[in-house]
Amino acid sequence: MKSRFAVRCVAPALIVLAIGAGAARADDLSGLTGRYAIGTGTNVAFSVAASVGPGISGRFTGFSGTIDFDPVHAERSSVTFDVNAASVTTGIALLDGVLRSDAAFNADAYPVISFRSTAVQRTGPASADIEGLMTLRGQTVPERFSVDLTGHGGDSAEFRVAGTLRRTAFGMTAGFPAFSDKVVLNLSVDGRRQSGARQDGGRQG
Predict the structure, then answer these.
(1) Confidence tier at 17 by pLDDT (50, 70, 90)
(2) pTM: predicted TM-score of the whole model, two decimal places
(3) DSSP code at position 194
């Protein structure tokens, strides 16, 4: 009887402590609240699997954007992110040309790939899901990505962003189904606090 009573008493206490620890961690990060520019240390990588062979892996070297970051009230956070489609590189010049052509990104006609967040939902003390609209090749599609705060110091904050999208939703059908419809995205984002940014949830008057 005593052991069952102890379990009934201790278990709720542990749950309360766990919730409190998560809240405390978010409060500890409150000093990071503000607006960040996406810095040059950012890495935007993607991969597409193939039914035979190694598939395609590459990255984009041209990008810009801002992060309004509120680690205490995650729902107040927002992201804008623009990628220069012509900056795609795989290390293989011939393949880079194909990806820039109308067979893939059609960079001449649609030079910018954009993402605008519409909602942010906390999933842990230093993680969240971000929903938003991605525009690629003139098509706008809702997408969702997972985000983790991986480091911070001074006026910087680092994030890991991961997710997948269907390339055929954007009219990128070349090579399908030999090459997968699923594009895996992995980003390491280098956020640099903007000079004069207010620390009130990233909003500026």
Answers:
(1) very low
(2) 0.82
(3) P
